[in-house]
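Researcher: We plan to redesign the surface later, but first we want a full-length starting point. Tokens attached.
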């Protein structure tokens, strides 16, 4: 498939695909007779995996390390697993931190909800007095 089709199907821009190829995240594409890139559809699975690594915050240098190990093939499985395990621990720590932050937000939001309800309940309990129309004089002023 041509780079435009790969961009459409992967969600990446053609510029990003060329950049990933240049830095080594994507293997160099085969070229057709007119020297245009011609990608195999199997590259979509790898691009999706790279997207997930990016989403979980893996630094590009580690993604490049993983890509280089993948390119070397058989015999690098242990190193790839170790790299992913180390990053998994960072992701777990980050999820725990985000969970703690979410708890603080939920507590704060609940506190505001209680205050708003109390304020509405207090407003409902106060009898409303009728106001005089503007410009009306009070009877005592005469």
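Model: Full-length starting sequence:
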């Amino acid at each position: 498939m041509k780079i435009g089709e790969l961009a459409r199907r992967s969600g990446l821009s053609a510029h990003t695909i060329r950049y990933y190829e240049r830095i080594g995240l994507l293997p160099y594409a085969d070229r057709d007779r007119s020297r245009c890139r011609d990608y195999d559809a199997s590259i979509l699975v790898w691009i999706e995996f790279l997207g997930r690594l990016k989403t979980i915050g893996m630094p590009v240098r580690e993604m490049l390390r993983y890509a280089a190990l993948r390119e070397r093939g058989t015999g690098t499985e242990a190193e790839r697993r170790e790299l992913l395990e180390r990053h998994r621990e960072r992701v777990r720590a980050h999820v725990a931190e985000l969970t703690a932050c979410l708890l603080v937000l939920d507590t704060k939001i609940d506190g505001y909800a209680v205050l708003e309800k109390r304020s509405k309940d207090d407003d409902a309990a106060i009898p409303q007095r009728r106001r005089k129309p503007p410009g009306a004089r009070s009877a005592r002023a005469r």
